[in-house]
Amino acid sequence: MTRKLISSGSPFERTAGYSRAVVKGDWCFVSGTTGYDYATMTMPETVEEQARNCLKTIEDALEQAGFSLSDVVRNHYYVTDASFADRVFPIFGETFGDIRPAATMIVCDLIRSEMLIEIEVTAFRG
Fold first, then answer.
1. Annotation: CATH topology of 3-124
2. What CA–CA distance (Å, rounded) separates 33 from 79?
3. Which intervals of the chain form a coiled coil (predicted)?
4. Model pTM greater than 0.90?
5. Is 29 left (phi over 0), alpha (psi -120 to 50) or beta?
6. What pLDDT digit, counting tens, does each position of 34-80 carry?
């Protein structure tokens, strides 16, 4: 079974030694993804904009891996404030409302103060 590594071009991937996603067989594991716009290395100020950037980066990684959002079976959402839940749920509903993967949201600190949300997903196409 081959292993394929996917990069988003983030400088963090090489520095921290990880891939945006790893494909192993029928599975695709997408690393925790924050709201950076990797083309400009800027971070939006609102959690809504960051969530949309996270989902765009995740969708791009899935496509590079030969998967799509409809293959997503598990999501982990990490937010820095519980009040963000009501602000990002509609965005997740737009993206995953028909797919309905298993999901968990955790309130926690993230590694940089500008990071308000991080999302990781697992996809399966078997």
1. 60s Ribosomal Protein L30; Chain: A; (3.30.1330)
2. 12
3. none
4. yes
5. beta
6. 999 988 889 999 999 999 999 999 999 999 999 999 999 999 999 99
What's the 3-state SS for the chain? CCEEEECCCCHHHHHHCCCCEEEECCEEEEEEEECCECCCCECCCCHHHHHHHHHHHHHHHHHHCCCCHHHEEEEEEEECCHHHHHHHHHHHHHHHCCCCCEEEEEECCCCCCCCCEEEEEEEECC
What the block records as the tokens of 67 is 């998967």
Asked if 65 and 4 touch (Cβ cutoff 8 Å), the reply is: yes
Burial per residue of 64-88, b for 16 or more beta-carbon CB atoms within 10 angstroms, e otherwise: bbebebebbeebebbbbeeebeebb
Structure tokens at 44: 């939006």
8 A C-beta contact, residue 59 and residue 94? no
